[in-house]
Amino acid sequence: MGSRISLRDDFDAWALRRLADQSRDANQTRRLLALASIYGGGKRLEAAGAREPAVLYPGATRP
């Protein structure tokens, strides 16, 4: 099993979601939203497979 990597203290879930919202690169957006999920208290394994907006934005609904 790999070693743990600590999260940075200068970011939080909402800041990462704002950055993801401003990004024009789909891959960067996906990574930022996965990190936002982790910063928000989600598990890393869940963030790696998260594809639904409701997982990343609590209360979100699909159009």
Helical percent range? Answer: 40-55%
Approximately what portion of the residues adopt beta-strand conformation?
Answer: under 5%
Structural class: mainly alpha
Query: Which blocks of ≥5 consecutive residues have pLDDT under 50?
Result: none
Tell me the radius of gyration.
12 Å
Shape: globular
Index terms:
63 residues, 4 helices, 54% helix, globular
What do these coordinates show?
Helices cover 54% and strands 0% of the residues. The protein is an all-alpha fold. The termini are far apart. The chain has a domain of 38 residues.
Provide a short characterization of the protein structure.
This protein has four helices and no strands. The protein has 63 residues and is mainly α. The longest helix is centred in the middle third of the chain and has 14 residues, at 26-39.
Produce the secondary structure layout.
Layout: H1 13-22, H2 26-39, H3 44-49, H4 53-56
Helix pairs in contact: 1-2
